[in-house]
Specification:
- 41% of the residues lie in helices and 15% in strands.
- The chain has helices at 4-21, 23-32, 89-103, 112-125, 136-151, 193-196, 205-212, 238-248, 267-271, 298-306, 326-339, 342-365, 391-396, 400-411, 432-450; strands at residues 56-60, 63-66, 71-74, 129-133, 155-159, 172-174, 180-182, 197-200, 217-222, 252-256, 278-282, 292-296, 371-375, 378-382, 415-416, 423-425.
- It has two domains: 4-83 and 342-450, Alpha-Beta Complex (Aspartate Aminotransferase, domain 1); 89-339, Type I PLP-dependent aspartate aminotransferase-like (Major domain) (Aspartate Aminotransferase, domain 2, 3-Layer(aba) Sandwich), CATH 3.40.640.
- The chain is of the alpha/beta class and 451 residues long.
- The structure holds 4'-deoxy-4'-aminopyridoxal-5'-phosphate.
- 4'-deoxy-4'-aminopyridoxal-5'-phosphate binds next to helix 5.
- GO terms for molecular function: pyridoxal phosphate binding; transaminase activity.
- Its cofactor is pyridoxal 5'-phosphate.
- Belongs to the class-III pyridoxal-phosphate-dependent aminotransferase family.
- Pfam families: Aminotran_3.
């Protein structure tokens, strides 16, 4: 068991050395506080274990340096936005050529790259018709609109403690007594999400059937494995059950592959042979340039196209001025063609297996009540054993001080984990030595805690 007073002392010590090590980041943060809301360019950047964020200087491949001159092995990779590695050469070249030599980032004209990207995403995810966005959030919003248009139904069903972007419908959880409630902290909800949504626990097919039986659910929006509340893997038969029940009740199935893309070149959908009606994705596919998209089955595309009165070419609520722009599409093409290739995924997955094994060794050595779960190129440790099987269980295993201790301990010794998770992601440039450095520092952090 964790000695809480020892943890408090160690956390305090590590925060002190973080402050001492990073005077320039601290000064930049202080200077920005009068001009930036919350002192940061985007409020999530305040999610930091030590009181202020590190300021970026340079980033290449699996490495970043901060303004105080420290180098880090980056296992955060922009919370998946940089799963292709920072500034991968092929993407840099394609983006440079598009923006510089050829010219034109946002012209409201298609480029030939777009058809190539649609075909490649079709090969990987098995859905033939693609449209682009700049974020996964927007891909989800637009997919939800199409699902409501086709089915004429009002509600969206999600899994408890999912995350699909700042989409109003998804901020709903299963409450302590099994009731449906707005997620704590939900900022300015337009209506209570219980009006627009239904929610069930992941891996609970009985609850899913109960909620779908109301007949008012346009789409189930889900990750094939939860990744935003630790990794929660599907149990045997669960995803087949979801597909069967959604078909039975006339509900569309949307797989959000934004994070589960780590499972392979076609995400979980490709790796596990799933057949959703719609796939949404964002973050990594542009190699760092804002990109996203949604893919539709032939049936869904035909249904939408067959409906009269939908304004798909102007102000109907689907699409955006900068979506599918020439720069973003050039970045997606280069990243998919040359960086996040089938071979790269095989290497990244091998490294994540090495990561998982090393963490499990430490857990075993100290008989910790923790677990580590891998999803392709990603792995995550969680303070619960056995590994949680629902979002609710995983949420109950949160331990903010322990999270902060491990994050700041690792950062002080050159390793970055994703601030929102204990998640480690491999990119094509991550090396065995990088993973070994994590193991060494993680083992030392745990040894000090164990005393
Ligand atoms: N879907 C999933 C599964 C995500 O994890 C996230 C972000 N963490 C999003 C969608 C939203 O991505 P973005 O913030 O880039 O729109």
């Amino acid at each position: 068991m964790i000695d809480r007073s020892r943890l408090a002392v160690l956390l305090d010590r590590e925060r002190g050395s973080f402050r001492a090590r990073n005077p320039r980041s601290a000064a930049a943060y202080e200077a920005a506080r009068g001009h930036l809301f919350g002192g940061v360019p985007m409020t999530w950047m305040n999610k930091t274990a030590a009181g202020f964020p590190l300021y970026l200087a340079t980033a290449k491949g699996a490495r970043v340096t901060d303004v105080d001159g420290h180098e880090y092995v980056d296992l955060c990779l922009g919370d998946t936005g940089a799963m292709a590695g920072h500034s991968p050469a092929a993407t840099v070249a394609a983006v440079g050529r598009r923006f510089g030599e050829l010219g034109g980032a946002t012209v409201m004209m298609p480029t030939e790259d777009a058809g190539w990207v649609g075909e490649e995403l079709g090969r990987r995810f098995g859905l033939p018709y693609w449209s682009f966005s700049l974020t996964a959030t927007d891909a989800n919003r637009w997919a939800i609109r199409l699902a409501r248009a086709i089915t004429g139904r009002p509600k969206i069903l999600v899994n408890s403690y999912c995350y699909h972007g700042s989409v109003d419908e998804v901020l709903i959880v299963v409450g302590a007594d099994g009731e449906q409630v707005s997620r704590e902290g939900n900022v300015g909800a337009p209506v209570d999400p219980t009006v627009t949504s239904r929610v069930v626990e992941f891996n609970d097919l009985a609850a899913l059937e109960r909620e779908l039986a109301y007949g008012d659910v346009a789409a189930v929006l889900m990750e094939p494995a939860l990744t935003n509340i630790g990794i929660v893997l599907p149990e045997a038969g669960y995803l087949e059950g979801v597909r069967r029940l959604t078909e039975k009740y006339g509900t569309l199935l949307i797989n959000d592959e934004t994070h589960t893309f780590s499972a392979g070149p076609g995400g979980c959908t490709g790796a596990w042979g799933l057949s959703p009606d719609i796939v949404t994705i964002g973050k990594a596919i542009g190699g760092g340039i804002p990109s996203g998209g949604y893919g539709l089955s032939a049936e869904v595309a035909a249904q939408v196209e067959g409906m009269s009165g939908l304004d798909l070419v102007d102000m109907g609520g689907v699409g955006g001025t900068l979506a599918g722009n020439a720069l973003s599409v050039a970045a997606m093409r280069a990243t998919l063609e040359h960086v996040l290739t089938d071979d790269a995924f095989a290497r990244m997955t091998e490294l994540a297996t090495h990561f998982t094994k090393g963490v499990q060794d430490v857990i075993d050595r100290y008989s910790l009540p923790w677990s580590v779960t891998q999803l392709g190129a990603r792995a995550e440790y969680r303070f619960a054993s056995p590994a949680p099987r629902t979002g609710g269980e995983s949420n109950a295993a949160n331990d903010a001080d322990l999270d902060d201790y491990l994050h700041v301990y690792l950062a002080n010794r050159g390793v970055l984990l994703t601030p929102f998770h204990n998640m480690a992601l491999m990119c094509p440039d991550t090396t065995t030595n990088d993973v070994d450095l994590h193991h060494e520092v993680f083992a030392a952090a745990v040894a000090e805690l164990a005393g």
